[in-house]
Automatic annotation (TrEMBL):
Keywords: DNA-binding, Repressor, Transcription, Transcription regulation
Species assigned in the record: Clostridium beijerinckii
The keyword DNA-binding belongs to this UniProt entry's keyword annotation: yes
GO molecular function: DNA-binding transcription factor activity; transcription cis-regulatory region binding
PANTHER family registered for this protein in UniProt: HTH-TYPE TRANSCRIPTIONAL REPRESSOR PURR-RELATED, LACI-RELATED TRANSCRIPTIONAL REPRESSOR
Xref: Gene3D superfamilies: 3.40.50.2300, lambda repressor-like DNA-binding domains
Pfam families in the cross-refs: LacI, Peripla_BP_3
InterPro entries per the UniProt record, alphabetical: HTH_LacI, LacI/GalR-like_sensor, Lambda_DNA-bd_dom_sf, Peripla_BP_I
SUPFAM superfamilies linked to this entry: lambda repressor-like DNA-binding domains, Periplasmic binding protein-like I
Entry keyword Transcription: yes
Top-rank lineage group of the source organism: Bacteria
Protein name: LacI family transcriptional regulator
Amino acid sequence: MATTIKDIAKALGISHSTVSRVLTGSKSVNEKTKEAVLNAVKELNYIPNMSARSLKIDKAYNIGVFFSTISNGTSPFVFQTVINNVYKNIDKKYNVIVKGIDMYEENTINPKNYDGILVVSQKIDDDDFIKEILEKEIPTVVINRKVDHDVINVYTDESVGVYKGVEELIKNGHKDIAIIEGAMNFDSTKMRRDGYLKAFNNYNIKLNKNLVLNGNFTVKSGYEKANELIEMNEQFSAIFAFNDEMATGAIKAITEHGLKVPEDISILGFDGNEIGRFITPSITTIKRPIGEIARIATDLLLRLLNNEQDITTKKIYIESELELGNSIKDLN
């Protein structure tokens, strides 16, 4: 049986994508790796499949942007911000095709149809999809959550950002804090939960589980869950909503009950959504730089397509920051 690129990669303990880049003359692979690959080519008697190589030259001029889901939990803010930044920064010769991973059928991704793929991964269930496109040697960048695959990965640690935000509530004297969480199957929900639990633990604040409700990242769910909280026979001075859309819905519910933000109930959001700057009061939020993440990822994907960036480049971490509004009352 003829030696393949994967045989060379396995022998050297490197990715088949790296071997492929050496054989196509990419300058992004270091000299030591390049020399090892070329030596292995001789030793294993590798003969390039010229017909397959000629097919690779054909470009589809399509870039795929795959979200975990488009209709079931992805907030409009995240969706619009990612797409806007991809369009702003992508080479205009490429078409951008937007799809949901939850709608794709296994083995339907064809390298002839996509020159590169940007995965906006929101849950661990995406790993099979990521594995499939990497096996098909489609240049790929994954954003939003940290993944273990041998792939360029641009992300932020949402638990760290949430810790900062909840700490701001605590430092302003809030101890009875209600929580409106996001979609249960999203990794971001788990990370944000880890963040507030760590803050509660470090400041010796007891979690009242009755004050923890599940939303789904929509304005409507924030409104409905805030109504439930207000109608409970439980005491709380603040609500932390897992995104700004739910925080906005919560403010509407609070107002409809004849209460005021932040005089009666303080609000903390997440995302840095522009909507939070244009309502009264403006929302204090943890700003996740999803626009910057999408911009960096698009640039890296283009560099991959132009053989300027080696696919073995690993993790790029972007920090979240606390953005102060007027929605938190100082109880001290």
